[in-house]
Amino acid sequence: MPAVIVLGAQWGDEGKGKATDQLGQNTDYVVKFNGGNNAGHTVVIDGEKYALHLLPAGILSEGVTPIIGNGVVVDIEVMFQEIDEMASRGVDCSRLKVSSNAHIIPSYNRLMDQANERARGKNQIGTTGRGIGPTYADKMNRIGIRIQDLFDPEGLAEKVEAALAPKNEIFAAVGMETLNPEVVTEELLAYADRIRPMMCDVSLEVNEALDRGDTVLFEGGQATMLDIDHGTYPFVTSSNPTAGGALTGAGVGPTRIDRVIGVAKAYTTRVGEGPFPTELDDEVGEALRIKGGEFGVTTGRARRTGWFDAVVVRYATRINGLTDICLTKLDVLSGYPLIPVCVAYEIDGVRAEEMPLDQAGFAKAVPVYEELPGWDEDISGCRTFEELPANAQAYIARLEELSKCRIQSIGVGPGREATIVRYPLI
Ligand code: GDP
Ligand code: IMO
Ligand code: MG
To answer: Which residues are responsible for catalysis (predicted)?
Structure first.
């Protein structure tokens, strides 16, 4: 029985929530392995929309055990708000488990995120402002606060004081209000009793589940091009949303993984700052944004839009060892006579098939387009590959060739049922 990683192959918002939910109906566990409430994963069931930030998409499927892995950064207040909201909509959240090793986003790191962005001025990253970067920085700096610290009030008070002191100096220097460590400690301790029964050893739980032959799905937040190591640094998030991150973020070894699915849109979007070679900064891009409903689930920001970039997805295939691509939003491309696809870049007049060596090169990359014939039909009702118009089938075939990976499923609408599964995995 498989262990399956689901991750973003582009710059995020590819439809990982829908893909996880769709696959997750037949799984036993869904484990989030990175990021935090910077993510916004949408699932649509029977026309009802659920926006998930911290909670794994598996929470919407009966019988699935959803787990927040050690690689996630947890804003506890937000997590409980989300649990309460889901519970009020009839979703059973009682099975949710959280790693005792996961780091907490204390309120001061939300403020640090804002202070950092302000200090960057015109070079700002356009973060979600959720405190993600400062919390991962504290983790690496070994001054982070973990879920398990909530059960040692004295130790917690010392840790908060040590972590907050240098930040208060920065807040004071930039004219922001400083925080009282005792108040922050009390705020965190207020959640201890509620979180205690949810604590778990994720690595043990997941490995034992795999030993039993259970199916485990690892759900990534963000995406390959936002990876701290492999993305468009510094315009990235502060975690590893790539396949390696799934292993460290849940405590499993590479030999246990059966499939790695990269979720990719049939075109490309990006939120926040940073290079984006196929971006359509014109009325064509605006029309695509409206047609695709490309507005952020977390911040409501308009997403930047562009054509499919096969260099990016080929790169995602390599970085993650993708076995499959889950292609989403093909329905949005109906109605274009010709659909440009970026097959390579031109950098300083030289053709590049692969991601350039440095970001200076990537920033100058000019897409080399191949124009593929489009289709007019509404494909949202198609449920088999054969039902798709011939040109849509040819588009898929060309994307597979360029991405060096098979396209396992095709999304033709936001609903759980609006998926063409070509190769069942679970
Ligand atoms: P995630 O962050 O990767 O989970 O993606 P988001 O939820 O942020 O954004 C994806 C958006 O596309 C959501 O509004 C989904 O409901 C929607 N969506 C996902 N797959 C499809 C699809 O195949 N067709 C259409 N039209 N919408 C889709
Ligand atoms: P999902 O899981 C798209 C982007 C932000 C910003 C950069 C850093 O829904 O695909 P951060 O707050 O993480 O420090 O911001 O990363 N970003 C996302 N873009 N989808 C996401 O999540 C994102 N999470 C972060 O816009 O450019
Ligand atoms: Mg999203």
So the answer is: 13, 41, 139
Q: Whose CA is nearest to atom 18 of ligand 1?
A: 414
- Give the pLDDT score at 405: 98
Look at residue 297 and tell me whether its pLDDT is greater than 90.
Answer: no
**Residue 402: its H or E element:** helix 390-403
Residues 231 and 365 in one domain: no
120, 124, 127, 138, best to mutate for ligand 2 pocket (most atoms within 8 Å of CB): 127
Q: What is the pLDDT of residues 261-288, one digit of tens each?
A: 999 999 999 999 999 999 999 999 999 9
Please check whether residue 229 lies inside any domain of the structure.
Answer: yes
How many separate domains does the chain show?
Answer: 3
- CA–centroid distance, residue 51 to ligand 1 (Å): 10
pLDDT single digits (tens) 80-102:
999 999 999 999 999 999 999 99
Distance between start and end Cα atoms, the chain: 8
Q: Is the distance from CB of 7 to CB of 44 less than 8 angstroms?
A: no
296 with 416, same domain: the answer is yes
What percent of the chain clears pLDDT 90, i.e. is strictly above it? 97
Neighbours of 353 (CB within 10 A): 11
Ligand 2 nearest-atom number relative to CA 271: 26
State which residues form the domain around 80: 3-98+198-260
Question: Is residue 172 in a domain?
Answer: yes
Cβ–Cβ < 8 Å for 252, 207: yes
Rounded Cα distance between 351 and 279, Å, is: 19
Asked if residue 426 is part of any domain, the answer here is no
Annotated active-site residue in 28, 32, 41, 149: 41
d(CA 159, CA 385): 56
Pocket of ligand 1 from Cβ distances under 6 Å: 8, 12-18, 40-42, 44, 293, 297, 328-329, 331-332, 411-414
Distance 371 CA to ligand 1 centre (A): 25
Q: How far is the CA of 299 from the centre of ligand 2 (A)?
A: 10
What are the structure tokens assigned to 325, written together? 């691509």
Q: Which residues line ligand 2 (CB under 6 A)?
A: 8, 12-13, 38-41, 125-128, 130, 132-133, 221-223, 226, 237-238, 271-272
Tell me the mean pLDDT in the region 1-25. 94
- Ligand 1: nearest atom to the Cα of 328: 23
Q: Which residue has the tokens 């400062």?
A: 134
- The CATH number of residue 404's host domain is 3.90.170.10
